[in-house]
């Protein structure tokens, strides 16, 4: 098969996607894979299990792309229509493949079951299509050139099956067909404690560049800068990114906490590990969410010793040794209580650092003096100091948002303190 240079389009088939019953992880995976391969990709389509609408989607895609990548609709049930519909659209018959049928029967036999007759339809491919093997499930895909200059690839909707088939068969095929004109490499810098607009103003001179490109985007309180370069090789593209990354880090300073797969929890964990120091947390409004973030990191037991969820004021007094008179006077959501919580958990668990959160997550419980979204984060440091910071996260984005940004802001506060302690050593 000879493949013409051009762009790709992802077409995901499944009414369940349109209804929002499942998250479309396949499109995200394929988009990243196409970028890594340097294959242009300008459109994604989601279409339900309807042959008329699938054909319409194919007709549109054929006008604007040369590589059509389908996921979904390859199962044995009547609403799995991808292969039959493609055969009808391109006016070719379906052909049963004995090798596919034998493979499906063998997989059922391995489970001690006979193959239902309905699975036989999975052995049918449009005439001229090549089998794209599925080593895990029963639904094979195909690689097909229904007309000159157009390639169609199909994959099952199950993400694990699709990803394995893509890596094992599709990627080598595309690399051999001279689709890849250089490679695209991306590096994502991650920021906390600065808004998207403020960061964009700082790095304005780098936005809109040609190669590499720099693009900002925000997600749940975090801001990211994606640097993308096209080069003749991975090394060539990475070399283009390196000086841009260095300059962006210089401009943004401490607001940049990491890159790519880093998280605030992983970065803080590595800082504690390198310092040979330990941490304990005291939580009120986040209800254990801060401890959950910390323990998502493998090996966190080396530095995270535990926490106390002091949701009720009596627990703050009994376990964290918060002064009951100051608690009554200042209230649970206050700098005084946040600091005593941090100091109390540090002493109770015997760690180097203590970190606390107390606030009003809403939607109820606020007042003019202490509105929903008011949060105090306390930090007891390794050198015996204790301080706190006041945050006002607002009430428009809801309880989950306030709890999320509270725990992330707590980690960021600790991250900056750990950096400062390193600089002072």
Structural summary, described in words:
The protein is α/β, with parallel strands linked by helices and 425 residues long. The protein folds into 3 domains: 8-176, MoaB/Mog-like domain (Molybdenum Cofactor Biosythetic Enzyme, Chain A, 3-Layer(aba) Sandwich); 183-259, Alpha-Beta Plaits (2-Layer Sandwich), CATH 3.30.70.2860; 264-424, Alpha-Beta Complex (Maf protein), CATH 3.90.950.20. It has helices at 15-18, 25-37, 51-64, 82-89, 98-110, 159-176, 196-202, 234-252, 264-275, 289-295, 313-320, 324-330, 335-349, 399-424; strands at residues 8-13, 41-47, 67-71, 94-96, 124-126, 130-132, 141-147, 150-155, 183-191, 213-219, 222-231, 256-259, 279-283, 304-309, 353-359, 374-380, 386-392. Helix 10 links the parallel strand 13 (279-283) and strand 14.
Which sheet architecture does the biggest sheet show? 6 strands, mixed
Annotated CATH homologous superfamily of the largest domain: MoaB/Mog-like domain
Give a count of the beta strands, DSSP E runs of length 2 or more: 17
Mean pLDDT: 93
- Number of structurally distinct domains: 3
Spatial shape: elongated
Proportion in β-strands: 15-25%
Low-confidence stretches: 1-5
Question: What oligomeric state is this?
Answer: single chain
- Residues in helix, %: 40-55%
* Number of helices in the DSSP assignment: 14
CATH architecture of the largest domain: 3-Layer(aba) Sandwich
What is the level 1 CATH name of the largest domain? Alpha Beta
* N- and C-termini, Cα separation: 64 Å
Which class do the helix and strand fractions yield? alpha/beta
Rg calc: 28 Å
- The CATH topology of the largest domain turns out to be Molybdenum Cofactor Biosythetic Enzyme, Chain A
Query: What topology, given as strand order, has the largest sheet?
Result: 2-1-3-8-7-6
